[in-house]
Automatic annotation (TrEMBL):
Organism in which the protein naturally occurs: Olea europaea subsp. europaea
Keyword vocabulary terms for this entry: Membrane, Transmembrane, Transmembrane helix
Residues in the signal sequence: none
Protein name, entry field: Nodulation H-like
Transmembrane portions of the chain: 23-45
InterPro entries linked: Nod_factor_sulfotransferase (IPR052796), P-loop_NTPase (IPR027417)
Domain of life: Eukaryota
């Protein structure tokens, strides 16, 4: 009896572990894997979307390159899309710009001609930049200056900024142009710069203008101030009262020297895109200004200048020793300079 009780007691103390269901365990593992997978995917998606948005922003920031309008292939090298460092061209950023340089000699009407160009709403000619010697001291400084001008970063009162369609400067032959002509020609051809040559046919008139201007630099006839160009007939009359005396001994050599320099410049720059103008032709024929605008590929407009011509009328009334000048030039290559070449 005791053994039986003891046996029952032992059996009653035996606790069997319940049998685990393998299907439930698989489901638990599967759910865990799914949760982990969803979490990992969500993290990856967030990172991908961040990278995508970043790439999208970068794409939006990158500027589309400007496309040149449909033109002849030969014209494309002369069309530029400068990106100034000093300002934004805003809506005109993709408007093409032409580069030019007015190449001339002192007292040949270049100042008057430049004011005509600057009266055009799309043309900016920045003046006689290389009259400052340090800017033409060597080729490197010349190139650096030209780069600033043609990148629209040379700001003057003539600058049209955003919607400039043609930008340039006035450059005298004796301001480093002839001395460094090889490097400058190379620059013009590489950068697509067009040359506008402006000369006077009558070099005797130019000589008279130079002497009169040189005299006024010291005399300062206009209320103690010197003016190379005037904007009133009254001022012009005051300056025209001075009649220079020409050195007839040096007259022909001086005329020949200028003539040769002009011919050399045309020879040096014959490989550039160029237009040759003469002051007298512009005075007599206003359509010449239309030719200039066509050359620069800008819309045609009526151009005007506030400058007033100083020396008018016959040459005989402008020179103190006119009789000696006549005798010196008659029978020479320069006799035609004695004749009246235009009227104003």
């Amino acid at each position: 009896m005791a053994d039986g009780l003891c046996f029952l007691s032992k059996d009653s103390l035996i606790i069997k572990n319940p049998k685990r269901n393998p299907l439930v365990m698989r489901m638990v593992v599967l759910i865990f894997v799914m949760v982990c997978g969803v979490y990992i995917c969500s993290v990856c998606l967030r990172q991908y979307s961040a990278h995508s948005s970043e790439r999208l922003l970068k794409v939006q920031v990158v500027e589309r390159p400007c496309e040149a309008p449909i033109v002849e292939p030969s014209e494309k090298p002369y069309m530029h899309f400068p990106k100034p460092k000093t300002f934004s061209r805003s809506e005109c950023a993709c408007n093409p710009v032409r580069y030019f340089a007015i190449l001339s000699t002192q007292r040949s009407g270049s100042g008057w001609f430049e004011t005509l160009l600057n009266s055009h709403i799309n043309i900016s000619s920045n003046g006689e930049i290389f009259s400052v010697k340090v800017r033409r001291s060597n080729v490197s400084t010349i190139v650096k200056t030209l780069d600033n001008i043609y990148n629209l970063d040379w700001l003057t009162s003539a600058s049209k900024n955003e919607c400039t369609a043609a930008v340039g400067l006035k450059w005298m032959l004796n301001q480093g142009l002839m001395q460094h002509h090889e490097a400058i020609v190379k620059y013009f051809n590489t950068k697509g710069v067009s040359a506008i040559f402006l000369f006077r046919r009558n070099l005797l008139r130019r000589m008279i203008s130079i002497l009169a201007n040189s005299y006024d630099q010291n005399a300062k006839l206009l209320n103690g101030t010197h003016k190379s160009h005037v904007h009133s007939t009254h001022e012009a009359e005051i300056l025209a009262r001075y009649k220079p005396t020409l050195n007839t001994t040096l007259l022909i050599p001086n005329l020949r020297q200028v003539d040769e320099m002009v011919m050399k410049s045309l020879e040096y720059f014959k490989s550039t895109r160029r237009l040759i103008l003469y002051y007298e032709d512009i005075i007599k024929n206003e359509t010449k200004l239309m030719d200039v605008q066509d050359f620069l590929k800008v819309p045609r407009r009526n151009l005007n200048s506030r400058q007033v011509k100083i020396h008018r009328g016959s040459l005989s009334s402008q020179v103190e020793n006119w009789g000696d000048v006549e005798k010196t030039l008659k029978g020479t290559h320069y006799e035609s300079y004695l004749q009246e070449d235009y009227k104003i």
